[in-house]
Automatic annotation (TrEMBL):
Source taxonomy: Bacteria, Bacillati, Bacillota, Clostridia, Eubacteriales
Uracil-DNA glycosylase-like domain mapped to chain residues: 49-200
SMART domains for the chain: UDG (SM00986), UreE_C (SM00987)
Residues making up the signal peptide according to the UniProt record: none
Pfam families, alphabetized: UDG
Membrane-crossing residue ranges in chain numbering: none
SUPFAM superfamilies noted in UniProt: Uracil-DNA glycosylase-like
Name by which UniProt lists this protein: G/U mismatch-specific uracil-DNA glycosylase
InterPro entries reported for this sequence: Hypoxan-DNA_Glyclase, Uracil-DNA_glycosylase-like, Uracil-DNA_glycosylase-like_sf
Highest taxon, organism lineage: Bacteria
Length: 201
């Protein structure tokens, strides 16, 4: 049997065009749109600075900011990302909503935030699409803080860290399960348990 196709409506200027596309391709395109992704690759630069101070002891690294984070110009901006719920629960605090509240939560608890990648080609928020990456320089953070441990948020951040940063710093990172909504296999309760163990160790 041939591959099943569906009718997909697109717009070319003011003209509506109906195209026949493979059902698997259609489902993939639809899913990417829901997750804030596109299939168009573009070069993106990290749009905001690291968050740390002289008392930061644990550095948490993501891979590269999502579309929502790049729009907000702050870490973990997607409303379904569980990062802020996890960190707030670990320290028995209210879930922060404003950027200032999030900064206070991180700095008051001697944490630091940054990402592995400074610039890359990426499709929307898809970590799997990252190409031609350039890594961030962690030397200033490490030199001007009390960093004792580096945590990477998820397997993609780990892979990128091992490839680009570990050879420079010589520091091995602890990988923790991703707080991304895409990591549905991990419940919020399980995330809090394993993250708390490493952050408070």
């Amino acid at each position: 049997m041939g591959k099943k196709k569906v009718e997909h409506v697109v717009f070319d200027g003011m003209r509506k065009i109906k195209k026949k596309v493979n059902i698997n391709q259609y489902n993939t395109q639809t899913k990417m749109k829901v997750m804030g992704q596109t299939d168009k690759q573009s070069v993106q630069q990290h749009p905001f600075p690291p968050l740390y101070d002289k008392d930061s002891k644990v550095l948490i690294l993501g891979s590269f900011p999502s579309v929502k984070s790049r729009e907000m110009k702050f870490f973990y901006g997607h409303p379904q990302n569980r990062f802020w719920k996890v960190i707030a629960s670990i320290f028995d605090q209210e879930n922060p909503t404003s950027i200032e509240e999030k900064k206070k939560l991180i700095l008051d608890n001697n944490l630091a935030l940054w990402d592995v990648i400074a610039e890359c080609e990426i499709s929307g928020s898809s970590d799997a699409s990252i190409k031609n990456a350039k890594a961030n320089d962690l030397s200033e953070i490490i030199k001007n803080s009390k960093i004792q441990k580096i945590i990477v948020n998820g397997k993609t951040a780990e892979r990128l860290y091992i490839k680009y940063i570990e050879p420079v710093t010589g520091i091995k990172a602890v990988v923790l399960p991703s707080t991304s909504p895409a990591n549905a296999a991990w419940s919020l309760e399980r995330l809090i348990e394993v993250w708390e163990f490493e952050i408070k160790d």
